[in-house]
């Protein structure tokens, strides 16, 4: 968990450093997009949610206390922006729902992506070194075998395996705090943004 | 191109042992944000800063506050000079001067037209709003007049009732503040949200 980096980002946001927002965007835009897409189907609408999330974060940064983790704070803003987007759309269509959502209402995988745990998974994937991330994507999304990945990337098959092994260990470490036994503090970090 | 990473040669299958169950094949884990998104964000933040929106100025560091205050004084002086220059060329809008507001990306289908008049007691504004969604509970719309550097509220509304014109008043002159913005606000957060849904120039 790169908490020190985030503390520095928070300090810079407090100080009104616009470049800190750029760094926040580069670090978290993917995670925010995953949450947004889990709420709204339309890619353009999800991109608007991403924009609004970082704008709201910039405006609310003065209320983020030093030492408070950025990730759950930003997740809450993203979630609120996504729900806002759905409510606006629902009202235009005069559709009333108890739980505003457009995407996969009953799909457990979508529910997971909508959650803070989903946000953290995406963030962990984004923080993998590019060669490892690419290898994991080829293995899981394109369903390639180790040999096929080796051929695609022009590396030995052993390199493919070592990259996958390292990537999985990194993910395991980065997501350790999401294991059921370690999640007692979720309610504390998931305070509503100020 | 080959790299220098150590090879693993055993045939054991490599599987993730993650503390959460997830399907890494889902596209949503791999979607990439719009490449232009970063530039759009920074542009919006830059525009917001010019409108006086930045993280809670009251909680910024003292040195920074002094710098911001200095910049604000300089901006105000520049605005005053600019206004002085404009004073001789712009005239207060005559009764019923018409204007139009255009939607932004926040509510792309929204639109509004209106009339504005400088009266002895303030600026009267009538908005005929089309296709603006009713504000969600806990939210409302707010109209602002701005000169590009400072913003002045012209009143709030919610659009939850039957369609009807919205009548607003502002205590500043549209000669000095020629642009009208409508933002979506959260209750309890009186500062301009920056979620601009409509914008346009009200002074010919």
Secondary structure elements and their pairing?
The complex is a heterodimer of chains A (194) and B (204).
Chain A: H1 3-14, H2 18-39, H3 43-60, H4 70-92, H5 108-114, H6 116-126, H7 130-140, H8 146-153, H9 157-174, H10 186-189
Chain B: H1 37-50, H2 62-87, E1 97-103, E2 111-119, E3 122-130, E4 139-146, E5 151-157, E6 166-170, E7 179-186, E8 196-201
Task: Tell me about this structure.
Chain A is mainly alpha-helical. In chain A, 69% of the residues lie in helices and 0% in strands. Chain A has helices spanning 3-14, 18-39, 43-60, 70-92, 108-114, 116-126, 130-140, 146-153, 157-174, 186-189. In chain A, helix 1 crosses helix 2 (18-39) and helix 2 (18-39) runs antiparallel to helix 5 (108-114). The longest helix of chain A has 23 residues, at 70-92. The radius of gyration of chain A is 18 Å and the shape is globular. The two termini of chain A are 23 Å apart. Residues 92-100 of chain A have low confidence and may be disordered. Chain B contains two helices and eight strands. Chain B has helices at 37-50, 62-87, and strands at residues 97-103, 111-119, 122-130, 139-146, 151-157, 166-170, 179-186, 196-201. Chain B has an eight-stranded antiparallel beta sheet, with no helix packed on it. In chain B, strand 4 and strand 5 (151-157) form a beta hairpin. Chain B is elongated. The N and C termini of chain B lie far apart (63 Å).
């Amino acid at each position: 968990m790169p908490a020190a980096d985030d503390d520095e980002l928070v300090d810079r946001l407090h100080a009104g450093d616009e470049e800190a927002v750029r760094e926040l965007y580069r670090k978290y835009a993917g995670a925010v997009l995953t949450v947004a897409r889990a709420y709204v189907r339309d890619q353009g609408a999800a991109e608007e949610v991403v924009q609004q999330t970082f704008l709201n974060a910039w405006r609310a940064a003065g209320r983020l206390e030093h030492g408070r983790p950025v990730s759950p704070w930003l997740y809450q803003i993203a979630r609120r922006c996504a729900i806002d987007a759905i409510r606006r759309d629902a009202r235009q269509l005069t559709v009333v729902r108890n739980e505003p959502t457009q995407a996969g209402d009953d799909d457990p995988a979508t529910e997971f992506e909508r959650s803070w745990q989903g946000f953290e998974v995406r963030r962990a994937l984004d923080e993998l070194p590019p060669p490892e991330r690419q290898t994991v994507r080829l293995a899981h999304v394109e369903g390639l075998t180790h040999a096929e990945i080796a051929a695609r990337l022009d590396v030995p098959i052993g390199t493919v395996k070592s990259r996958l092994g390292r990537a999985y260990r990194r993910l395991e470490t980065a997501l350790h705090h999401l294991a059921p036994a370690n999640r007692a503090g979720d309610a504390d970090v998931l305070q509503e943004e100020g | 191109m080959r790299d220098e990473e150590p090879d693993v040669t055993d045939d054991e299958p490599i599987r993730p042992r993650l503390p959460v169950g997830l399907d890494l094949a889902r596209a949503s884990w791999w979607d990439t944000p719009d490449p232009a998104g970063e530039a759009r964000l920074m542009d919006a933040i830059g525009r917001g800063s010019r409108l006086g929106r930045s993280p809670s100025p009251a909680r910024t560091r003292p040195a920074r506050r002094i710098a911001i205050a200095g910049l604000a004084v300089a901006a105000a002086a520049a605005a005053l000079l600019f206004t002085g220059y404009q004073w001789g060329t712009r005239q207060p809008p005559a009764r019923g001067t018409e204007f139009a507001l255009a939607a932004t990306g926040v509510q792309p289908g929204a639109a509004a037209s209106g009339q504005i008049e400088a009266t002895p007691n303030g600026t009267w504004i009538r908005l005929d709003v089309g296709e603006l969604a009713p504000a969600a509970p806990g939210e409302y719309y707010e109209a602002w007049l701005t000169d590009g550097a400072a913003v002045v509220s012209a009143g709030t509304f919610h659009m939850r009732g039957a369609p009807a014109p919205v009548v607003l008043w502002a205590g500043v002159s549209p000669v000095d503040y020629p642009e009208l913005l409508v933002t979506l606000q959260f209750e309890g957060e009186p500062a301009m949200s920056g979620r601009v849904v409509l914008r346009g120039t009200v002074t010919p």
